[in-house]
Design a protein that fits this description.
Blueprint (H helix, E strand, L loop, with lengths): L4 H4 L19 E5 L4 H16 L8 E6 L5 H15 L7 H8 L2 E5 L5 H17 L6 E5 L6 H10 L13 E5 L7 H14 L5 E3 L7 H11 L13 E9 L8 H26 L8 H14 L13 E6 L1 E3 L2 E3 L17 E6 L11 E6 L6 E8 L19 E7 L3 E9 L7 E9 H5 L6 H11 L8 H20 L7 E3 L6 H8 L16
Parallel strand pairs: 1-2, 1-4, 2-3, 4-5, 5-6, 7-12, 8-17
Antiparallel strand pairs: 7-13, 8-11, 9-10, 11-12, 13-14, 14-15, 15-16
Helix pairs in contact: 2-3, 2-12, 6-7, 7-13, 9-10, 9-13, 10-13
The chain binds NADP nicotinamide-adenine-dinucleotide phosphate.
């Protein structure tokens, strides 16, 4: 185990971000869709985690809201079960859980019913008055996206959104993904959101941004001086971003069959990763400085032609195969999936960022379900050395350096470089220097939803997407969707479940003389 105590003793905190230990002002979290999967698997355990860590004020309360007829007691029991089942990596203290559950309430109502929203308002104001605190409220839209528009409208009409009101008491809204299903619907939803809330009240969530390793991309790039001089077209040959899942569509068949991988992963998570790798240094760590730079990257992406074929995006579907020793069925046999579906479970493409820094540097993006392993990794491949010394004729070419940022799992950073093998011959081999979060910090990274909920409670939107950022990402993706619509194929290319994707995606790299790679290859994979 490396001793990093000294190295870590000078750790500094973000000067302009919220202090990680600060407790927000008393507030109520209202979860719309509180009977659902996200609320139980992610939100309630995350809120409990914050509560147990003392990061929520004692007067914090949570109001679950949904149509399912449930009472306070049943909701509390369900929440306690969810916390016990889905809290990973920390011990749940029963007494703390009991105290937490006593702060939970439930209300039954529709998502487009003004009278119900007026009732919520009275309830929140009465509760706040009883407890002598302001009725600060964080609304969380954890419903399917069809309900986002009606809910924000009713929040506005009932006065719950407090649009344009003074800073206190505050009202904010967290909106789940997907934010729109194309450019037009994202614009329409933004219009509805802006009619009810001001931008500083809106928190469009992409939970990837709450991951420590994603935030560390900025630290790696801008808190170190050694990378910046190399981080451009002069030294970087190309960048690869892989977002691979070993799971299939599971219970999300009906949603996924409408969405596909381009909408589900590329438009949001992958665009965010591209932004963080490619953006210029922001003027400060203030939310708008960071988000301004991300928007510039999205606007500099070279438009992709709206065509069906590899000039646009390579798409494929998983066939039956073996994942980690288990036989799994193909996509077309998954529950909720149309037997003649042409929704892609895999997508790959080459994109260029037409600005000075990245001129001519390809960014290769690939994402898929039922791949050989679950792994998200960004690999920055540097240009090869002039092959005059070690790579001279008669010797095999020396592998270029690669810096890999592993987002999940085994979060960390790896640098690959060449070393001389001890002995009389000038034999060279690539070597990896690894930094692993778990080994160095000896504690699990906080759950992304914990960090994001706390930031929203503090009113810090740095790790959330701004309205123009979402639209810039959709503007880039829209021609891909238009191209996909033109595809009259009866069947998409297939790749066996448990593989690294279709041969068409390998060909995309081969024509450029490159190949897909994973620097920290997951164990047990080819
Ligand atoms: N689950 C995840 O891991 C995950 C991950 C990332 C993003 N998200 C996003 O989070 C949101 C909620 O996801 P979820 O998985 O929790 O969904 P879900 O379980 O299907 O829905 C949550 C709740 O929304 C209510 N609802 C409102 N309109 C509905 C409709 N037309 N059809 C079905 N239910 C409706 C239901 O409650 P009542 O019937 O009781 O009102 C349901 O319990 C979605 O926008 C999803 O894209 C989820």
């Amino acid at each position: 185990m490396p001793d990093n105590t000294a190295a870590r003793s000078t750790a500094s905190t973000f000067p302009s971000g919220p202090d990680a230990k600060a407790v927000p002002e008393p507030f109520t979290l209202v979860i719309f869709g509180a009977s659902g999967d996200l609320a139980h698997r992610k939100l309630l355990p995350a809120v409990f985690g914050l509560w147990q860590d003392g990061l929520l004020p004692p007067q914090f309360s949570l109001l679950g809201y949904a149509r399912s007829p449930t009472g306070d007691d049943e909701f509390r029991r369900g929440a306690a079960d969810a916390v016990a089942k889905f809290t990973h990596g920390r011990t749940v203290d029963p007494k703390t859980l009991e105290a937490f559950a006593s702060r939970l309430h439930y209300a039954v109502g529709g998502y487009d019913d003004l009278a119900c929203f007026q009732a919520i308002r009275r309830r929140l104001e009465d509760e706040a008055a009883r407890e002598h605190r302001p009725p600060n409220t964080l609304f969380y839209l954890a419903t399917p996206p069809e309900a986002f528009g009606p809910v924000v409208r009713r929040l506005g009409e009932s006065g719950l959104s407090r649009r344009g009101a003074a800073a206190a008491p505050w009202s904010r809204v967290v909106i789940e993904k997907p934010f729109g299903s194309d450019l037009a619907s994202a614009r329409t939803l933004n219009g509805k959101v802006r009619a009810a809330f001001k931008e500083h009240q809106v928190f469009r969530i992409d939970h990837y941004l709450g991951k420590e390793t994603v935030q560390n991309i900025l630290v790696l790039r801008f808190a170190n001086s050694i990378f910046e001089p190399l981080w451009n077209y002069k030294y970087v040959d190309h960048v690869q971003i892989t977002v691979a899942e070993s799971g299939g569509v599971e219970q999300r068949g009906p949603y996924y069959d409408r969405a596909g991988a381009v909408r589900d992963i590329m438009q949001n998570h992958m665009m965010q990763l591209v932004c963080l790798v490619a953006m210029e240094s922001p003027l400060s760590l203030a939310a708008d400085s960071v988000r301004d730079e991300k928007v510039k990257v999205l606007r500099a992406l070279r438009p992709i032609p709206a065509v069906c074929g590899p000039e646009g995006v390579i798409r494929a579907q998983y066939a039956a195969g073996e994942v980690r020793g288990k036989q799994v069925q193909g996509y077309l046999r998954e529950p909720g999936v149309a037997p003649d579906s042409t929704a892609e479970t895999y997508a790959a493409m080459r994109v260029f960022i037409d600005n000075w820094r990245w001129s001519g540097v390809p960014f290769y993006l690939r994402t898929g379900k039922r791949m050989a392993a679950r792994v998200t990794e960004i690999a920055v491949r540097f240009k090869p050395i002039p092959q005059v010394l070690f790579g001279a004729p008669g010797r095999s070419p020396v592998e270029p350096n690669t810096l890999a940022m592993r987002i999940q799992p085994n979060e960390g950073i790896t640098l690959r470089f060449q070393v001389k093998v001890p002995g009389p011959a000038m034999q060279i081999e690539p070597f990896q220097m690894d930094f692993g979060y778990a080994e160095v910090f000896e504690r699990a990274a906080p759950e992304a939803y914990e960090r994001l909920l706390l930031d929203a409670a503090h009113g810090d939107p740095t790790l959330f997407a701004r309205g123009d950022e979402i639209e810039a990402a959709w503007t880039f993706i829209q021609p891909l969707l238009d191209g996909i619509k033109q595809c009259l194929v009866q069947r998409l290319p297939q790749y066996p479940a448990g593989s690294w994707g279709p041969k068409e995606a390998d060909a995309l790299m081969e024509v450029d003389g490159r190949r897909w790679m994973l620097v920290r290859r997951p164990t047990g994979t080819r």
